[in-house]
Design goal:
The protein is an all-alpha fold and 351 residues long. The chain has a domain of 107 residues: Alpha Horseshoe (Serine Threonine Protein Phosphatase 5, Tetratricopeptide repeat), CATH 1.25.40.10. The protein contains 21 helices and no strands. Helix 3 runs antiparallel to helix 4 and helix 14 packs antiparallel against helix 15. The radius of gyration is 21 Å and the shape is globular. The N and C termini lie close together (11 Å).
Length: 351
């Protein structure tokens, strides 16, 4: 059977620079429909946002903003190829002077390129950002991830080290680097970043300490810190607390944590995905599929790939191979370079 994707993924919004409100006022009058579209995007209403942007274009509103917002909406619909076209069109509207909005769009463009499988293109886009803004820690981290995907480990580590040098007191960055290396099968290399984070002079929150202990495999200390974080109202801690209980073998309790969290915040696709994974472990494949379906409906582009793959795994475990075959074809149409999915497709062809 297929193996579910169990990656901890930061939302796209957390990875990007958001300059929108700082430059919106400098774009002149006539942004009413673009602003409406951006509100719809924020609420996950991507198709409606595209319709508002058509009206914005007909009304003569700013084309840079229109292309940018169209690209973001297309990403929400998992149409990354069209998103690349829109972000490229937005950048082509440049008057020859690089502005904050161009950097913002370039970050989006790189992520869309990455998701179409154009890893080299994403790498080049991050390099272009860094050529103009060599102190962009985010760009070094993200370019490092593209180097990992290109199997260029030395350059990946070099970029991660540059990111840390620019943001030495950011414990979250150390964890992101560890997780990127761990996903690439290099968790031993990532351990040094966790140790560096633990040695920071910056006071770490209970959540940050708990997450570090979780990544280091010290689940008892992770549980203690994460439970304190949850008690103090830190909603971020629930995901890692649940995963800690999973690591300790208490999948039932982990699932109950995710369900309780989703009662208050049903729009968290990452927690919804984790609940589905728990339910697969518990043998509730129908419940898992329902969780993955709901997660996809939330429309978080950063979680789309994992959720769609996990849908297929749930169908396989249910014995619904015909449905799984259809899903894997749809999945590969969006993510054609996923080697694990290609192998999964070969398996399903024998069923």
């Amino acid at each position: 059977m297929g193996r579910a994707l169990n990656r901890l993924t930061r939302g796209i919004g957390a990875l990007l620079l958001f300059f929108f409100f700082s430059f919106l006022t400098g774009c002149g009058a006539g942004t009413e429909h673009v602003e409406e579209a951006d509100s719809l995007i924020e609420n996950g209403s991507y198709q409606e946002a595209l319709e508002s942007l058509d009206v914005a274009e007909q009304s003569g509103e700013n084309m840079i903003l229109i292309h940018r917002s169209r690209g973001i909406a297309d990403m929400g619909l998992s149409d990354y190829g069209t998103a690349v076209d829109e972000f490229t069109a937005a950048l082509s509207e440049n008057d020859g002077y690089v502005k904050d909005i161009d950097v913002d769009i370039s970050y989006y463009l790189a992520i869309a390129q990455y998701r179409t499988g154009d890893i080299r293109g994403a790498n080049d886009t991050y390099s272009a950002i860094l050529a103009l803004y060599p102190k962009e820690s985010d760009a070094y981290f993200l370019r490092g991830r593209t180097y990992l995907a290109l199997q260029d480990i030395d350059n990946a580590k070099s970029d991660f080290d540059k990111a840390v040098k620019l943001s030495p007191d950011d414990p979250d960055l150390y964890v992101q680097i560890y997780e990127a290396l761990s996903d690439a099968g290099l968790s031993d290399d990532g351990q040094k970043y966790l140790k560096s984070a633990m040695e920071l002079n910056t006071k770490l929150s209970a959540f940050q300490q708990g997450r570090l202990y979780y990544c280091m495999g010290d689940y008892e200390r992770a549980k203690e810190n994460l439970e304190n974080a949850v008690k103090n109202g830190d909603s971020q801690a629930t995901l890692y607390l649940g995963r800690t209980y999973e690591a300790l073998g208490d999948t039932n309790y982990a699932a109950s944590l995710y369900k309780s969290y989703l009662d208050g915040d049903p729009g968290n696709a990452q927690v919804m995905n984790q609940l589905g994974l728990c339910l697969i472990d518990l043998g509730d494949y129908s419940g898992a599929l329902d969780a993955f379906n709901k997660g996809i409906d939330i429309g978080d582009p950063a979680m789309d790939q994992s959720l769609r793959f996990n849908q297929i795994v749930a169908c396989e475990n249910m014995g619904d191979f015909d449905r799984a075959k259809t899903m894997i074809q749809d999945y590969l149409a969006i993510y054609p370079d996923d080697e694990e999915a290609i192998r999964e497709n070969e398996f399903l062809a024998t069923r």
